[in-house]
Amino acid sequence: MHKKSKKEKKRLVLIFTAIITLLSLLIASVYKDWQQIMANKKLERELNSEYNYLMEKEDKLNTEIARLSENEGLINYARENFLLSTEGDIIIKWDKNNTNN
Asked: Does residue 91 sit within a domain?
């Protein structure tokens, strides 16, 4: 076995330092990309959740539109929301402030 010369030792230290530096840069780059991937996956989950909520809301609104498209549905909606009556309905007025019997 022969001894390594100073020149060979310097070369090995230089190569070792270069390899460690390149590995450090590679790991730093991969770590940044990995963080971005994780952030994108979180955003994707949030957006999918919002999308599903909006799709359910759309279904409810489409059901409401279909119900109101029918004449009977429109009449019922007007009666419920605008307190409209039809011919023959009995209207009872209730005074909330009057507590006397």
From this structure: no
Q: What average pLDDT does this structure show over 84-97?
A: 74
Token readout for 28 is 């730093």
Rounded to an integer, what distance in angstroms lies between the CA atom of residue 64 and that of residue 74?
10
Q: Flag whether pLDDT at 6 surpasses 90.
A: no
Token pair of 99 as six digits = 């507590």
For the chain, how many structural domains are there in total?
1
Answer positive or negative: Cα dihedral of 27, 33, 38, 41: negative
pLDDT in tens, 10-62: 999 999 999 999 999 999 999 999 999 999 999 999 999 999 999 999 999 99
For residues 53 and 60, the answer to whether their CB atoms sit within 8 Å is no
Q: Contact, 47 vs 53, CB < 8 A?
A: no
Inter-CA distances, 45 with 18, 37, 50, 89, 96, Å: 41, 12, 9, 52, 50
